[in-house]
Every structure is written in C-alpha cells, then in structure tokens.
C-alpha cells in the first residue's frame, strides 16, 4: 500500500509542476510559449542515470566512472533547465513573472523525478522495473 501512496503523491507533484509551467506560458499577461522548451530537459534528465544503471553492475561498493559521468550529465541537464527561463527573461523573450512560475515548476518536477528514483529505484519487491 505504501507504493500506491507514493505513486499517487508523485503523480500529484508532477501535475502541480506542469500546472506551474503551463501558467507561466498560457496566462494572458504572459501569452508566450517559449518556456515549453523546458519539457525537453524533463525528458532528458533521467536518461543518463537510467542508461548507466543498465550498463554498470552494482555489486562493487566503490563508485565508477560511468555512474559519475551519468550524474555529471544529469546535473548539467538540470542546471540548463533552470538557466533557460532566466536567459529568456534576461533577453526579454518572456516576462520575469513567467520565469518565476517556470522556475517553480522546474523545482517541483525535478523533486518529483528525484522522488521517483528514491522510491522506486531500489531493487526491492516493489520496483519500477516490474512495470
């Protein structure tokens, strides 16, 4: 039952984060859809870590280069997702209020992605790999 509660809370977090992103785009005050390019970062952020988990054998306790590279690439993607709305706002492509809404959505979405990997990332009896 704990897995169902975690799944419901993660889906709620994702919905709230996407709501902030859509508010930053679709409110009549802002009315520009450039911040939707952040969606590419949402899709790309878990990919390096997922690929490294499939390639690397987790039997050793020491860290290895593949996992460290995956964490580095994931960090770069997340930082880019936070930087893109700031650059758009600085270049006057979007308003600063839209930038604040998109940054709030980014924080919630990336916290949701992190929560997903913390809850379902272990190889316990309830894992995301069974889906």
Automatic annotation (TrEMBL):
Localization in the cell: Membrane
Membrane-spanning parts: 7-30, 36-56, 68-88, 94-120
InterPro entries in the record: Vps55/LEPROT
Alphabetically ordered keywords of this record: Membrane, Transmembrane, Transmembrane helix
Taxonomic lineage of the native organism: Eukaryota, Metazoa, Chordata, Craniata, Vertebrata
Biological role: Negatively regulates growth hormone (GH) receptor cell surface expression in liver. May play a role in liver resistance to GH during periods of reduced nutrient availability.
GO BP terms: late endosome to vacuole transport via multivesicular body sorting pathway; negative regulation of growth hormone receptor signaling pathway
Protein name listed in UniProt: Leptin receptor overlapping transcript-like 1
PROSITE patterns xref list: PROKAR_LIPOPROTEIN
GO CC term, one of those recorded: membrane
Keyword set includes Transcription regulation: no
Family: Belongs to the OB-RGRP/VPS55 family.
Topology of this chain in the membrane: Multi-pass membrane protein
Main location: membrane
């Amino acid at each position: 039952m704990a897995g169902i509660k975690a799944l419901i809370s993660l889906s709620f977090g994702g919905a709230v984060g996407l709501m902030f992103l859509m508010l930053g785009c679709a409110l009549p005050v802002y009315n520009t859809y450039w911040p939707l390019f952040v969606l590419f970062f949402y899709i790309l952020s878990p990919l390096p870590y997922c690929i490294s988990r499939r390639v690397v054998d987790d039997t050793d306790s020491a860290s290895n280069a593949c996992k460290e590279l995956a964490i580095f690439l994931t960090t770069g993607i997340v930082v880019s997702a936070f930087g893109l709305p700031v650059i758009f706002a600085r270049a006057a492509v979007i308003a600063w209020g839209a930038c604040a809404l998109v940054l709030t959505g980014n924080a919630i979405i990336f916290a949701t992605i992190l929560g997903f990997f913390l809850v379902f990332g272990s190889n316990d009896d309830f894992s995301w790999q069974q889906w």
